[in-house]
Structures are given as structure tokens and as C-alpha cells.
Automatic annotation (TrEMBL):
Signal peptide: 1-20
Spans through the membrane: none
TPR repeats: 71-104
Domain of life: Bacteria
Keywords: Signal, TPR repeat
Key word Signal present: yes
Descriptive protein name: DUF4810 domain-containing protein
Coiled coil stretches, renumbered: none
Keyword Ribosomal protein: no
């Protein structure tokens, strides 16, 4: 009796672990990149290049069947742009995040305000070239 119970207790979790739900968003390898970046902050340029490639790939193949870009990826890319001093471009990506994920509007508005102060465009993120 104990062997059957032990076998059952071990087999069920193994069986259920193979039933992963399909993802709803396009993540790429973002989670691994983010982990490596937190472990070794010197990897900003690699993260920048990888996120840039992921976003370019996503935007080039965008069609009705394309899963939306995962929440936070545009914002993360915008933050990396701010760290590089490209605040006007960061505002563009914060606006993309806000458009794709309206629930992020309050935070994205704050980030746009911060980026605007640093670029001298304190008119709410509107960039006039």
C-alpha cells in the first residue's frame, strides 16, 4: 500500500509538470537576459542589443496572429535608453508601452515626466523635432 501511494505521489507531479500552459505574450529570452543583467550589471549593452533585436523582430512581423509583446518590455527598453542618455527615444518607448498596456499609464506617465525633465521637454512627453 505504501509503495503505491509513494509511486502515485511521485508520478502525479511529474505528469502535471509536463502540462505547461501556452504563453500569451512574446517574451523572447527576456527573463534570462534580465536575470543575467541583475547578476552582472555590466551587461547593459548586451541586454540593450538583445531587447532591440527582440523588439525589431516583433514589430517587423506584427500581424493579427502575433502575440502581443510582453508587459514591461517596451518600458524596460525605454529605461535602458534613458540610462544611455537617449531620453527622447525612451519617451517614444514609454508611450508604446502605455498604448499596448493601458494599465501601465500611471507609471509610464511618471517615467515620461522624468525623461522629459532630463531632456528639457516638459510638455508631457510630446517631442517636437
Amino acid at each position: 500500500m505504501n509503495r503505491k501511494l509513494l509511486l502515485y505521489c511521485c508520478a502525479v507531479p511529474l505528469f502535471l509538470s509536463g502540462c505547461a500552459a501556452p504563453t500569451l505574450f512574446t517574451w523572447g529570452n527576456y527573463d534570462q537576459w534580465l536575470y543575467e543583467n541583475y547578476k552582472n550589471p555590466k551587461n547593459d549593452e548586451v541586454l540593450y542589443a538583445d531587447l532591440s533585436a527582440l523588439i525589431s523582430d516583433y514589430e517587423s512581423r506584427k500581424n493579427p496572429q502575433t502575440k502581443p509583446l510582453a508587459p514591461g518590455l517596451y518600458a524596460e527598453y525605454g529605461f535602458l535608453l534613458m540610462r544611455r542618455g537617449e531620453n527622447k527615444k525612451a519617451i517614444e518607448y514609454y508611450n508604446k508601452e502605455k498604448a499596448l498596456w493601458p494599465e501601465s499609464a500611471v507609471f509610464m506617465d511618471h517615467m515620461i515626466q522624468v525623461a522629459s525633465i532630463n531632456t528639457g521637454t516638459a510638455d508631457g512627453g510630446e517631442i517636437h523635432e
